Structure formats: structure tokens, C-alpha cells
Amino acid sequence: MKLKHLLIFFSIIIFTTLSVKSNFITYTERETTEFDIGGILSYEDNTIVLQIVRNLSGGNCSETNISLRVIYPNGTITPIDLSMEELGIQPLNFCTVDGFSPITLYALDTKEGNFILVTYTEAADVNNPFTYDDYVMLIDLNGKIYSKTSMGPSLVDPTNNNTWAPGQSTITPNVNDEQEFLYFTLLSSSYNDAVFIYCNLTQWIINEDGTLSNTTEAMVLPFQLLPSIISTVDGDYMFIYPNSLSSSNTSQDHFSSQAGLYAVYWEYRSNIARAPVILYEISTITEFNITELDCVVSYSEVGQICLVTMQPNSTNPNSTPVYIIINFVSGGSVFSAKHIDATLPKIIGIAEIDDPQFLILPLPFGGYFYSVNQQTNISDDNSPYDIWGFVLDDNGNFIQWNLSNPVQSDSNALPQVLTNNTLIIVQPIVGQYWSLITTDLYKFHEDNSYHNIFINTTNPTIGQNIIANETYFLTITYTVPVVLSNGTFTIFQNNGSSNPGIVRQIINGLNNNEYATINNDTVSVTIIESTFNNPGSTYYVTIENNFVLSLLYNGPLPGLSSNIWSFTTTSEEKEQESKIKQLFDGIYGKVKLTEDGTSYFDNLNHSQKNEFFNNLTQELANAVVVATERITTNYRFVIDTESSSKQYFLSVKIEKPQDASDKWTKLIAKDLNVMIQNMDITVLTSESSSKYLESIYGYVTIPSWYENPDYIFQFILTAIFFLTLTILCFISICYDAKNKVKSDAKSNVKNDVKNDSKYNIYNKKHDIKTFFYIMLCDVYDLIQFLQLLSCKKKMVNRKKMVDEDKKNHFKIYSYGFNFLSFVLDILFAKIEAGSVKSIFFASVFFVTIPYVVKLGYAVYIILDELVREENTEDSNQLSNELLRKEDSEDSDGQQDGSQDQQDNAEEKVPIKKWLKDSKSYKIILVILISLAGAEVEVLKMVNFQYCGYKFNVKLSEEFEERIILGEIIGIIIKNIPDFAIRVYFLSKAIDFSYLSTLTLLVTVIKILGLITKPIELNIVKRKRRNNYNEL
């Protein structure tokens, strides 16, 4: 019946009597229909669940709902009633067949919480059992349904008219709480085989969304008898079954093996089962029947324990069974086997008991719960049971429990022992009331509050306050010597909402042994800096079974459940950041993908790459426990050019804090770096995107250029380079200024008697003035071609002082700038371009191809000059130019300056003759042509002088025009493509390096030549036309 239709009134009565230490829990059901207790489920945290079954009168069916009562350790009871409609299952599941119900409940402990697995059946045709399929439903303790999964066809008995046989499957949860379980079911072929029972086995896992998935292929195993299934301490599975040989054994040797206990070992997530091994052989004269087999993980001794109940073949109905206790480690190695002949205490009179039932259960803290069960009214199948209970030690000694003998128990629910050694008995139902009686059983071993008798002490202790930045190790001291094994040691941060919390560090005993060390019985676990990174938070530790092995038996020891070993980091006073610091506190950084990660990333399309980035930033934010918006990305990735294999850098930014309580970005960067460098022991190694990160690289912040020593060094080199050009330029100006002053001084004192003192005074007077005047003329010459000034008169005056060879000393900057541009192009292609896909090849192409084109063009210019005939036009042009210069001289004694220019002109020779004058000139020309491949303007150096050093090569006027035209071509075929490449590179690059920024700036300056070069070409052409017109 639906929950909303129920008016539930319940009361909890918990009281303790003085004579016995026991508690009672009583609950009142509002529904008046008769009901039974269908079973009890118990969990590691001592939560229990009762199934309420309301039977319909006159049949084998019950009401079509699943009713549960969840009883928490604090005494709270939560009712859950799920109707058939809510469950989405068919009515056939609420009827038994030959006493077996299709619906069976199993408790499942996981790190995410407590769940219930419900088996049921769906029929495509209710009249045809061969259309029946078995299913498993997953629900939580709030009644939420997560998934329904088909387990395969239901069992049909071909020997009984193909009757449906429900309830023949079992579920065994994995001991390590990894949300996994084993599904075991019989096959129909078992009915046709007189020797073997065939079973189908599969391993399953619960996914994050609650769906179920196979972790192994289905495996079929034959058994002579139904096995007892156990999940071993190390997380594997064992199938243990008895094999009685008495009926077929014809040996007359009464001491030969009469029966045995066998085990089949099946590894976790494996498709291969090992061959059966024998755990125990029975050799005795008196024949015994194995009546019961119960195998469980032993929490008081190493490994597992099997309790074999053997009933003597005696005519005495009250004969006491013999119990064989077998201790063995995972894999089947037995280290202890003994029998207990339990002689009942005198308090139980044998005469009082008729056809008793015996129950023995291993206890978590040593010993066994032993009970003798007798129906109060043996003639009534539904009669409750009287229970006499004891605690039995390994020597067969009985210890009285805390309850008065006998205690009545409901007939449908066996007593349960919780992990804290508490016994729970369901008492007979009275009307609409059901009640539980609980008692604490005697403990042979103490657990020191760790719920594990093998753990002696820990540091820090439970509930201790610790100083985060002073905690470098966690230690566990066991009660026995240990060695590391394959289990994990996990540190969680309690986030107050989800279970189990935030994973901070995971240590595997074998795979991460550099973080865990053993000293006899003590394990020390190294703590990385990022683990306790939130002062004032609570942390707790879980230890998987099989984290350590017993040194003596080489068997895995039990671990430690969550919420037991917890401690708190002390709060630290946080320094107040200034608002300015918070505003500019964002940090850019990068992470690196492994080779496999890079290969995986390359195979993603654009949208998948963006999803990869989003997942990565989410996982990193979760790992360092900050808000999602604090870790962002611009979706940029580049290639690591220094790696021998292809690996990507990914851009990851840490945003500035929005509130004073937010974690500082530098601390987040530090934690990220530590966690990635130690990702094998952090949650990052198991996430979908972060698992591809290169742990050696970590998280590297990208500093501002003024914080980067490499960039500062590069900037200093650039400044030194331009400072050197400036010094060279000033030296050239000083040299020409001194020469001009000397020439003027000689002219001014030529009529006077030679006086060195007067001559030196004149020089000092005019040196500085002439220096600045020449520099001013150079500046004027730079801007003249832009036609920003029109100063013809000034131009004439300038010509009085500076001849054609000496003008514009700033050309040193032009040559140096061209050299810098070429070097930067090469460095960019070599260092930077390879980091962005396709940029490297484009950069190399636009370095080499334009170089070849401009080199060919330079060769063409020089060859044209070499084959050019000396003609009278050029000679007349030169003579007329000299005459014009002579006419323009003033009568104030400037004849010597004009004569110097004429001498210079007379010294110039054709390039062919110039090359013949010296072999070194040929080498110089080859060097200049080679450099012209980088910049055609270099060829102008054949007509350039520096501090008196000059080549005095006579060149045609077309020479300068062709050079300017070559510079324009170079800008079009090289600098414009370079600009596009640089811009694209910066749009993809993670780090705006000094080199890439300077290269872009130089390229932009070069492109501006498209504005200045045509104007300069026009000026040269106009000058040439004027010269011809004057002729």
C-alpha cells in the first residue's frame, strides 16, 4: 500500500534492565493485516532493515508491496512501503512456489552508502515459464529506485513438468565495499545430472548512475553440492562445498578419508577459476553427516573461517553435533583446523529438549555465538522458538549471555550478530506489534574503538586535533607484525554532505610503497602537502582489507571502515589580502598530457576537446576542494617543443578569489602542482580527463614577463643591441662632425698665420654644434620622404655641410633592425612555432621561400650592375651634379668643402672595376648578396660609409629604385604572411613569451613599410627625373 495512504504511528521503547544488559525496540504497525518478519538485513554501520510481509489468507501469496523498516543505530525507525505499481513488477513475484519466493533482499555496503538489492522476475507470458527472466533492482534506504537489470532466464525444472523454480539465486557482496557483487544461480541442466549441480556465475558493479554492469563474462562451474560462497578478505571469491565419500568409499581402512571440504577460488574481475583445492579431510571410524556449512571472513583471526556442523549418525535425537573450525587464508592455505565437541551446560536439561536445532556463528571479537533452538510448540510449524544462548570459546567453554534463558524468537527470522558484537533477536509478533531484543555479547578481544582487533594504536588518535603543516606522516600500529599488500589506505575530507567525502590521498600498499613504510608492526604513511589543505576541516581514514598481510601467515588483515578514525586540522588565522591583490590575483598556468593522453586528445573532435577541458577543470577543482569557477581554461593547447615525443600543454587558469574567505590562488596552484606530481596517490589518477596528465610536470604557473628571469634577460639583450646601434650611430656622427669642423676651421684661418691654439679653440667651439646639426639633418632626411616638411632652403643649407655619402647616419638602425628581424624569424621558427600545430611548417616555409626569392632578386640587381656599360650619360650627370654643387657654394670660403665632394666623386669606380681591385671585395659582395636574401636593403651597403670607411662603388640610379622595389616585394611575400602567422600563434598560444611578442612587434613595423616604401620610391624616381631634366 502506498505510503501516503498510511497513517503511521510508531513508538520506540528502549530500556535497560539491571539484571541483564539488553535493549528492546518495539514498533507498532498501523495496518491491521497480519504480517510476518520476512528477514533481517544488517550493515557495517550497524543499521538493520526488517522486511514486513503481509500474507493473504487462504493462499501462498502476500500483499503486492515491499515493506521495509529501517532501524538506525541511534534508534530511529524509518518505514518504507513500495507498492507493486511503484516497483514496476508483476504480481507473480508476490507468490511463493514450493516455498520459494522470487523476491529476495540483500544488503549491500558501499562507500557511497547502504543499498538493497532486490531479486524479482519478469514474464513476457505468465503461462510460459520459458519466457521468465530474473532481474535485480537497486534501491537505497530511502526507497529510491536506481535501476533494474536483467540477470538472464529464470530457472525451470524440466523434471517437474517444466515448473518455474524461483529463488534459486544468491548475491554475495564484495567484502571491499567497491559497489560490486557476485551473482550465483542454478542452471536447468542441474536437474538432469545425478552427479553435478551446474551454476552460472557473474561479477557485477554498480556504476555512478546506479546502473549495473558486468565486470566478467558468465562462467559455469559444476559442484557436487551447493557451495557456501564467501568474499575473501582480499576481495576475491571462494566457493566452498562438502564432498561426502562415505556412500561410494569401499575401502576397509576406517582411517582413510571419508569426507572432505573443497574450495574453488575465483579472482576478482577474472574469467578464470582455479582448480578445486581441499581444505579439510575427515577420517574417522564413526560416520558423520555434514549438516551445515557456514564460511565467513574472520575478524578475530587472519583470513577466513569455516564452521562445519557434523551430526553423528546416532539413534539419539538429542545427540550433540561436532563442530569443525577451519581457518585459512585467501587462496586456500589452511593454517588451523580443530574440532569442538560442545557439551551443553547443565542449565539445559537434555530431557527438556526434543529435536533441538543448533546454531553457531563466529563473532567479530573472537569466539562464537552458540544457541540451542527448540520450538515452543513442536506440533505447530508457526510456533516461535525458545533460544538458549551462549558465547563459546575456542576450547569449547560456554559463557552465559546477558539474557535470561530461554528467550523467545520469531520463527521466520534467525538471530543476527552486528559488527559491534551486538546480538539481535526478533521476538514473536503480538497483534500489530513487533519488537527486537538486543544484547552485547562477550568480547574476547578489545578493538580500541577501531572496530578492528588487529589495530592497536594510531597517530593521530581518534578525534585528535592536528596542525596541518606539521603533519608529515600517519602511523598505524598493529597487534601483529605485518607486510604491505595490495589494499588501499584512503584519506577523505568530510564535506558534510556526501558520503564518503572528498578523496585527498590514496595509497596502495604495493604500488605506492614509496609513500608507505613498515617497521615490524607499524605502518607509516607519508602525507603530501595538499592533503590537509583546509584548516578547520575534519578528515578520516579508511583502510581496505588486504592493505597489509600478517607476516606470520601471509594472509590479508581486515581494514578500517569509514567514520571511525577521524581527526581535525586546527584553524589558522588567514592574513587579510588587500583589495588590489585580490583583484589581480588570477594565475595563468599549464599542465602537460602524457603521450597516451596526447594521442587520445588528438582523436577528439572540436566539441569533444572542449568537453575534455571542461571535465579537466571540474576534476581539478574537486581535487583541490574549491568552487568550480575558480579553475577555468581558455581551451588552448600547444605542443611541447622540448619533448622527444609529441605531448600537449593545456592552459589552466586559477581565477582570483571573490571573497576574503576563499583560498588564495597561490595556495591553489601549489596544491595542484603537488597533487599532479603525486597523482598516483590522489583522486586525479582515476578521473576521466585528469588521468592523462603528466605527473612529472605538475602544474606550472606562467609568470608575467617582468617576473620571468628568461624574459628579463632577453629584454636586456634587446636593449643592449639597440644601445650598441645608438653608440655606433653617435660615433659616426661625431667622426663626420669633427671632419667638417676641421675643414671649416682651415678655411676660416687660411689667411692668418698658422696658430694651433686658435685652431683648437675653433674646433672645440663648433664640435658640439656641428654634431647636433648633422643629427638634425639626418632626422630631417628621415621624414622628408613622407613630405611632412617642405624646407627647400634648409635643404640647400644642409648640403653645404653634409655630402651625399655622409648623410643619414640613422641607416645604422635600419640595417640593425633588418638583422634583428631575420634573427627573430629564425628563432621563432625554431623555438616557438613548433608548439602550435601547423605553425611550424608555415613559419619555415615563409622563412625559406621568401629568402630564396629575395636572394634571386639581389643576384639579378648585382648582375645587371656588372653588365651595365659605362655611358656618357652617367658621366655627364655626375659632372653636371658637381658643377651645380660648385655654383651653389657661398663666397665665404666653402670652396674646400666643394672640392672634397668632387674628390670623392672622382674616387668612385664602376662595380666591375671595384671587384678587380681586391679579391676581398668579391668576398664582401658575396656576403652582402647572401644577407640580401633576408633583406634586399643590405645591398645599399656597397654605397655606404662609416667613419671614413667606404667602398666608393659607382651605381646606377635604377639600383636604389630596384632595392626599394625589392623591399616592397619582401613585405608582401614575407612580412604580411608572417603577421598572420604571429597573430594566429598568439591566438592559440598559452604563454605570450617575450620572443613571440617582440617578433610580432617587429613584423608590424616592417609592414608599415608598405606605407613608407612607395613614398620613398616616388621620391627617388622624382629625383632621377629632375636630374635628367637638368641635363
3D architecture notes:
This protein is of the alpha+beta class and 1031 residues long. Among the domains are: 33-193 and 202-216; 455-569, Immunoglobulin-like (Sandwich); 587-702; 706-745 and 764-787 and 807-867 and 909-1030, no CATH class. The chain is built from 17 helices and 50 strands. Strands 12, 13, 14, 15 and 16 form a 5-stranded antiparallel beta sheet that branches. Strands 25, 26, 27, 28 and 29 form a 5-stranded antiparallel beta sheet that branches. A 5-stranded mixed beta sheet has the order 34-43-41-37-38. Strand 27 (385-392) and strand 28 form a beta hairpin. Helix 6 (709-748) packs antiparallel against helix 9, helix 9 packs across helix 16 (994-1007) and helix 10 (839-867) crosses helix 14. The protein starts with 21 loop residues before the first strand and ends with a helix. This is TRP C-terminal domain-containing protein.
Helix-strand blueprint:
Blueprint: E1 22-28, E2 36-42, E3 48-53, E4 65-71, E5 77-83, H1 84-87, E6 104-110, E7 113-123, E8 132-140, E9 145-153, E10 156-157, E11 163-164, E12 169-173, E13 180-186, E14 197-206, E15 212-214, E16 219-223, E17 228-231, E18 237-244, E19 259-266, E20 277-282, E21 288-297, E22 304-312, E23 322-328, E24 334-341, E25 357-362, E26 368-375, E27 385-392, E28 398-400, E29 407-409, E30 416-417, E31 422-426, E32 433-440, E33 455-459, E34 465-466, E35 473-478, E36 482-484, E37 488-493, E38 502-508, E39 516-519, E40 522-526, E41 538-543, E42 548-550, E43 560-569, H2 579-583, E44 587-592, H3 595-602, H4 606-624, E45 631-632, E46 637-639, E47 648-654, H5 665-677, E48 700-701, H6 709-748, H7 756-784, H8 792-801, H9 811-832, H10 839-867, H11 872-887, H12 895-907, E49 909-910, H13 911-917, H14 919-932, E50 953-954, H15 957-988, H16 994-1007, H17 1009-1030
Region (Disordered): 884-906
Keywords: Membrane, Signal, Transmembrane, Transmembrane helix
Signal peptide: 1-22
